[in-house]
User: Which sequence fits this backbone?
């Protein structure tokens, strides 16, 4: 399973790549806002960093960049997507899972502009993006689980549907809005292709109190053992 970083902060992207070897980045309007930069400056800086690291191309290191959420006209979405895609060969265009969003993504894929259909909250929503050849589909977990829904079954159903119809691996499933280490595990068990989460979530997922206890136990033994 691949790990993407859900952030538009360049320092976090660098750290996540150097520490955890992340495989890509997902951004959204909120992440751009939190970066403190204008939209085009924020995504342009990410594009420059990717190029400097020798990771050019969405096949090597995809960076999802979201369209203006005010736009829900297929023609306008396509027009903005073309502009964004021209900024970097790494950019995958995030489009909300609406009727016009799916129509725009279908057109863009035919043009060779890769898409990530986002804000997916049901298996039914996940089918059409795959049928139409989107590179990624992003079912959200955190918001659903906060409302008491079973996200393991939800992701497993999407995986099973994709396997039934030959979509699995062609349209990659990004588990989005991941808030806990448990959700990362649930996605991995269900067979999702990718998880995207914030840097703090990945740091929490690698930490365990028994690991710390073990280090302290062995450190004490080390200190009480002669070297020679």
Assistant:
């Amino acid at each position: 399973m691949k790990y993407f970083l859900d952030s538009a902060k360049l320092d976090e992207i660098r750290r996540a790549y150097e520490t955890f070897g992340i495989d890509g980045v997902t951004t959204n309007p909120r992440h751009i806002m939190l970066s403190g930069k204008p939209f085009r400056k924020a995504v342009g800086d990410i594009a420059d960093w990717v190029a400097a690291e020798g990771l050019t191309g969405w096949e090597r290191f995809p960076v999802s960049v979201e369209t203006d959420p005010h736009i829900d006209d297929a023609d306008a979405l396509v027009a903005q997507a073309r502009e964004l895609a021209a900024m970097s060969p790494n950019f995958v265009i995030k489009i909300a899972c609406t009727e016009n969003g799916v129509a725009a993504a279908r057109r863009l894929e035919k043009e060779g502009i890769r898409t990530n259909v986002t804000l997916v909250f049901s298996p039914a929503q996940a089918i059409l993006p795959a049928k139409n050849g989107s590179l990624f589909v992003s079912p959200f977990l955190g918001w659903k689980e906060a409302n008491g829904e079973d996200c393991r079954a939800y992701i497993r159903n999407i995986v099973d549907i994709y396997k039934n119809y030959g979509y699995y691996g062609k349209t990659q499933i990004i588990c989005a809005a991941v808030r806990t280490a448990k959700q990362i595990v649930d996605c991995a068990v269900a067979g999702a292709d990718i998880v995207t989460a914030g840097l703090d979530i990945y740091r929490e997922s690698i930490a365990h109190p028994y690991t710390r206890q073990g280090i302290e136990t062995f450190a004490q033994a080390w200190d009480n053992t002669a070297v020679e």
DSSP finds eleven helices and eight strands in the chain. The first strand starts at residue 2 and ends at 6.
